[in-house]
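Intended use. Records like the one below are meant for learning the mapping from a protein sequence to its folded structure. Do not use them to infer anything beyond what is encoded.
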Amino acid sequence: MRPSLPDGPYLIVGLARSGAAAARTLLSHGEVVGVDRGHPEPPPGVEGHLGSDGVGLLEHVACVVKSPGVPNEAPVIATARERGIPVLGELELAWRLLPNRFLAVTGTNGKTTTTELLGAIHREAGMAVAVAGNVGTPLSSLVEAVDERTVIVCEVSSFQAEDSEAFAPETALLLNLAEDHLDRHGTFDAYRDAKLRLFANQTGEHVAVAPPGLELPGSARRVVFGDPADLPLPVEEVRLRGRHNLENAMGASAAALASGVPADAVARALRTFTGVPHRLEEVGTVGGVLYVNDS
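Structure written out for the chain above:
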């Protein structure tokens, strides 16, 4: 059983894409107020307070929902926690409201390509799948929009992961770790710990997929990837170009196979998936020369 939502009224902090989706989702659960230091258009039905830090609104709400782009040091977030008001990230909110199986993908590099590849793998297997999260579609927008049998493949950034509390995906995949976003997290250790929160609440019935040599929290079944021999097809048949994309393919393959996707479906997707726009994207061949957009 996933934890229930705290009671409202709800204050949405940050009304960009993820915050706006969370606000629309929560309208059926109670009164929703939104705040943003900028001036975006609030969703219909949401009382918007723009150009404000939102601290004064805490007197009238019972739960705060934080957009990923809002730092923990923001006055409204720090004050809410000081007062004991629950603060949920958009990822946590959506996961609590979605009964679906989750396959969460994180890492410093390759998240979007791997997330989209996993979507292609599930489609090859004839499985209903929705790709969402940091890849572009807010998770909250899937609430009541997808069948509960749909597998959700979710790209998770460190900004999203650091706000998770009970989040426990059935399968979690960590691709790699390198220094990044230190302007937000402060230190590499804090950045790494944010990423590893995907695994912290996993239990023995869950799957944790990562490269060798990484110590993971939680008690999920551990699956290591990185050996091309573990792929369900010869390496030269993988459609994605580049050593880094081979790593992405191995991570996606390991996560899919560990989640019960048939090996033949994984192989078919690896043979045909060409990647995402602007990342070693094949544009066409002219005069025998292959042109690739890697902008």
